[in-house]
Protein 1
Amino acid sequence: MQRRHLLISLTTTLLPATMHAAEPGRAPLVQTLSTPGELPLLLTVPHDGEAFIGLPPARTRGTVLRDLGTRPLAEQTALALARLTGGQRPALVVALAHRRYVDVNRSEAEGTESDDAVPAWRSYHAEVAAQVADLRKRFPNGALMVDVHGQGQVPDTIFRGTRNGQTARALIKRLGPVALQGPHSLTGELAARGYTVAPLMQDTLSAEDPRFSGGHTVATYGSHQPEGIDAIQLEFGSALRQRQARLPDDLAAALLAFMRYAGYLPANVSARQRSSPGRLTA
Ligand SMILES: [Zn+2]
């Protein structure tokens, strides 16, 4: 079978990055974009890939649509974080293969339906696992992963998914459920900036919407796992991704405020942050 390759633009302001390629003869040029960072934060983008990875058969089960706009959202949020911190960025891992061929937020068995799709799945998880291990080593007091998704069912709402607190077990153990759902939680900081979040803010843990309560990635790398870190899935509504130009700046500010409150950020980053001209107030 003749294989076609789609040229992928790898131009990014976040370089240097690791381009995780497939083994020779297995089609894809590049499957995962992985960029190291300085902050105790990893942003992952599983569902905004547009590459055809050598055209394996399309998946016949599960969702095959992209979470459009989540890659630029994560990349712009990373740039905004750098602006707010004097140049410190989050790590970033982006799946480049189209979800039609591989879903990296499912198990390998569920997310791939042909052998040709397996290298793309493994490439993504090798990079995520490596970044998580690196964060654990550099930030023994805790680090955060945010898995960035989009949903179209409730266009103005941001859903949190932690498997009802399970994937942020270390955070909850340290500060209580208020850290996941109170006014200084990540969704609390987003709510303070005018966004509708679900579950609603309160000090006790309430049930997450079962449609968006956390997929394979947060379940694999969350802090309930021996080698995990606190992991929060965020599902951004389609109207927010299409029309809310402030979203990356607001997300970056919310992330910084939350990371400072939750103790992920070392003191020197907090000091720089307070002296920066960003939108944050102490
Ligand atoms: Zn998604």
Note: The chain has one domain: 18-263.
Protein 2
Amino acid sequence: MAQAINVEDLNIYYSEFLAVENVNVTIQPRSVTALIGPSGCGKSTFLRTLNRMHEVIPGAYATGSVEIEGANIYGSGVDPVNVRRRVGMVFQKPNPFPTMSIRDNVLAGVKLNNQRISRSTADELVESSLRGANLWEEVKDRLDKPGMGLSGGQQQRLCIARAIAVKPEVILMDEPCSALDPISTLAIEDLIHEMKQDFTIVIVTHNMQQASRVSDRTGFFNIAGTGKPGHLIEIDETEKMFTNPENKQTEDYISGRFG
Ligand SMILES: Nc1ncnc2c1ncn2[C@@H]1O[C@H](COP(=O)(O)OP(=O)(O)OP(=O)(O)O)[C@@H](O)[C@H]1O
Ligand SMILES: [Mg+2]
């Protein structure tokens, strides 16, 4: 199920503005890759090209290729909706559908993909997804209550349950803990740790402790100045990146000597 992602010669644009230049990287399956770097260097932009969410912004496009399981998701005839089913995304701010129950939130992605499922299959899927997101015990007695009635940390786990319900191969997370308290953050980090058995995970974080706790590999993006494109400077085993990086820019950033 979990797949490697091969990115080749990826250039990412907002109209004429080249936001991220020439990324070449392989993201390992069944592992957690953390992306770090200063604000505006293109981490979110890069992440969104991995499931074709970037091009949803008017004028936004990318050149180069992103291969999952050997097939370019930017190839002709590829349906971006199908790509987004295979590559799920969890955002910075928990975004459950406000009018939907907890149960319907979990099933929202499945229904969007026009998959017809019986009541009993749906019940099983709701339970397994909520268990997968470590939320089942907390909500099993109120599945028909609104998703918005949960705490921030629970809402984020609900969004993770919604993402895993469609059985993706890859899960992208853009600063998933930045709106959460420390306890909820640890709960999500534990969850990410468990999830890598089944999924390829890419997480953007500004928290370097989090990157070192949760990821197997870490990539450092940087930007030479305003209006310049971001670059992937270095990517390696997380332990190496935080103790003995190859690149001076990485070293300066992780040791706080940046800027
Ligand atoms: N919708 C957009 N339209 C035009 N330019 C954009 C858009 N979104 C981002 N950018 C630009 O692309 C560059 C990269 O932005 P991006 O949001 O990817 O950075 P980031 O590394 O995620 O930053 P942060 O850590 O603050 O989230 C920035 O120069 C930003 O202004
Ligand atoms: Mg961002």
Note: The two ends are 41 Å apart (CA to CA).
